[in-house]
Amino acid sequence: MLDILSWISLGSGFLTAALIALDVRGHPQRMRIMNIVWPVTGLYFPLAGLWFYRTLGKPMAVDQPCRHRQPRWKSTFLSAAHCGSGCVLGDVAGAPIVFASGRLLFGSRLFAEYAVEFALAYAFGIAFQFLAIREMRDSSPADAALDAVKADTLSLIAFEVGMFGWMALVHYLLLPGHPGADTIVFWFMMQIAMVLGFLTTYPANWLLV
Question: Of all residues in the chain, what percent are helix, strand and coil, respectively (each to 5)?
């Protein structure tokens, strides 16, 4: 049953991401990095991600009326989704690398995943923030990079707290032995971890916004 549920959830995530990507292609976002953020958000928010995009993302398309002010919760959600997408890409890239290499840290594959995924998530997150800052204002590359570090560090750490906490729970209690990145259950657990990461990064982004 867990395998079946995993296939349904992952399949729904890919379908959601594909539907969002198709719509974004015809209605690109004003902030170009969001053209990547929204499909990635759909990957770990199956079906719900489509509603999030149509409610919060679609109105920000270049062919929609410009909205200068919006409720704080919407700004916070967009900021959290932006942070989350960088984290997700890093985590999705990092897990197979650790699994394929067989690397351990302190004798544990889980800790190795923590280290590699955090490093890659941080790199993607800073890159996403850097591109957004450069698009929004006329900053030098050095200033934009520094601002990206300031803006993304707290929110990224908050995301990984929720995500890594769930991974530890799965590893030590729910599924002892920690299913590898070559199983569908692993990616279903990662999908849940990403949702929890979004929930833990939301308060950090509320403070930052």
Answer: 80, 0, 20
Sign of the four-CA dihedral 105, 162, 49, 82: negative
Within 8 A by CB and 6+ apart from 52, the residues are 41, 45, 77, 81
C-alpha 164/C-alpha 148 separation (Å) is 23
C-alpha–C-alpha distance, residues 67 and 142, integer Å = 30
Query: Tokens 């990224």 appear where?
Result: 156
pLDDT tens figures, 95-144: 999 988 988 898 888 899 999 999 999 999 888 888 878 777 777 778 78
Burial status of residue 43 (CB atoms within 10 A of its CB: 0-12, 13-18, 19 or more): buried
Longest dimension (CA), the chain: 55
- Whether pTM exceeds 0.85: yes
Confidence band of 52 (pLDDT split at 50, 70, 90): very high
Contact 159, 201 (CB under 8 A): yes
Contacts of 129 (CB under 8 A, 6+ apart): 82, 86, 147, 148, 149, 151, 152
SS3 139: coil
Of 182, 161, 198, 200, residue with least CA distance to 78 = 198
Residue 106 burial (CB < 10 Å; 0-12/13-18/19+)?
exposed
CB count within 10 Å of CB 75 equals: 16
Cα(137)–Cα(32) distance, rounded to whole angstroms?
A: 14
